[in-house]
Amino acid sequence: MKKCAIIGAGITGLSAAYYLGQESPEIEIDIIEASDVPGGKIKTYRKDGYTIELGPESYLGRKKIMTELAADIGMKDDLVVNNTGQSYIYAKNKLYPIPGGAILGIPTELRPFITTRLISPIGKVRAAMDYIIKPKPMNPDVSVGAFFRRRLGNETLENLIEPLMSGIYGADIDKLSLKSTFPDFKKTEERHGSLIKGMRHNRKGAKSAPKQGQFRQFKNGLQSFIERLEEVLVSRGVTIKYNHKVEAINKTSQGYEITMNGETQMYDSVIVTVPHTVFKDWFNDGPLDYFQTMKTTSVATVVMAFDESQVNNKANGTGFVIARNSDTVITACTWTDKKWSHAAPKGKTLLRAYVGRPGDTVVQDNDDAAIVKLARQDLDKMMEIKGEPEFSIVTKLYNSMPQYEVGHIDKIHAIQHYVATHYPDLVITGASFEAVGLPDCIAQAQKAALKIAHR
């Protein structure tokens, strides 16, 4: 019987094991995990009526692969949809509603954009020049910031687009690769000659759709999805080796020797799903040197629970993001009890703030108490909060956001070609490669599993 090692029991590793087992049930699968629990960054706090995500909060419902996997493992009825509500941008020391019709900050409706005070009259005129500015070749890649600054101007970029886009990748948009993250915007510009015109055209088909939340969760938290997936895998004979740290992978004529906890075991195939910060020292090949210098951002989430009488929130909505030129430590905040009905008991207010920008060391330099204090100081600028929280939870995610800088995807494609040629029956995948969202990780896992199954 052939054996496959899957390194990492995060969502990518567990999903890879699921799809490989579906496609090739005859393969013996070992998942090797350095920690004592599955899920990677996914962790849910469940106590006293609270269901709080300490890592990723949810996933985009339009990326259906995660919903399909949930249904496959019997969790279709556990899915919940976020409540819709107004979102805000904090800029110029004030909360501004995101203009209606804006898609990731790109205006598609005239009246809301004209009437917003988030952008000055001059800034609005500059954004309108998108209609007459001709598309420009990417040569072969450009930063997200350079692309949108050229199309819509600096003010719309800084006050509207940057706060929404940078939060997805925890990145500096003037270094973030357009080709690696939002290539469809370039295609829209080229097809229609104008980004705004193209986005308006793309929206027409969706206008008749009923308005509903675009995010998905589970009534018992994302961790319940991980727990169920683990349960299914174990029932199918998959072995999960917890507290096993991989120290080396060596290619031999028989397959791959994996050294873990000082012992060596032989496998016919390997799927590596851990971050590049973990696997980079397992390969000394020159073409993989990119991972030695690939940057990351460390982030933290700060959850604070209050009685609803303690918080006077004049802005009625589900949360806000913060423009990078603001004098704050936090980068965004979700009014979690409003966004997710299952997250907090009735009568409680739950705030979830995000800390950590590319290049800063706030997360590394401060203990939990200091981070709570810094986050509270920022939140006090934006709403009236009386007294101390009933409890607070800080979760630090060191080096958790890989930085897809300009040229990233081309380097990744070259690496994937090299690995396929020089390491047959070994696949490296995960968030360091093509996308950081949970469904994206599952899609990459499925792709990796199919490669191994069809060798």
From TrEMBL:
Pfam families xrefs: Amino_oxidase
Subcellular location(s) per record: Cytoplasm
Main location per the UniProt record: cytoplasm
Record's keyword annotation contains Cytoplasm: yes
Domain Amine oxidase, chain residue ranges per copy: 11-449
Cofactor: FAD
GO CC, one annotated term: cytoplasm
Enzyme class: oxidoreductase
Keyword set includes Nucleotide-binding: no
Catalytic activity: coproporphyrinogen III + 3 O2 = coproporphyrin III + 3 H2O2
Biochemical pathway: Porphyrin-containing compound metabolism; protoheme biosynthesis
NCBIfam families: PRK11883.1-5, proto_IX_ox
Record function comment: Involved in coproporphyrin-dependent heme b biosynthesis. Catalyzes the oxidation of coproporphyrinogen III to coproporphyrin III.
Name used for this protein in its record: Coproporphyrinogen III oxidase
Protein source organism: Macrococcoides canis
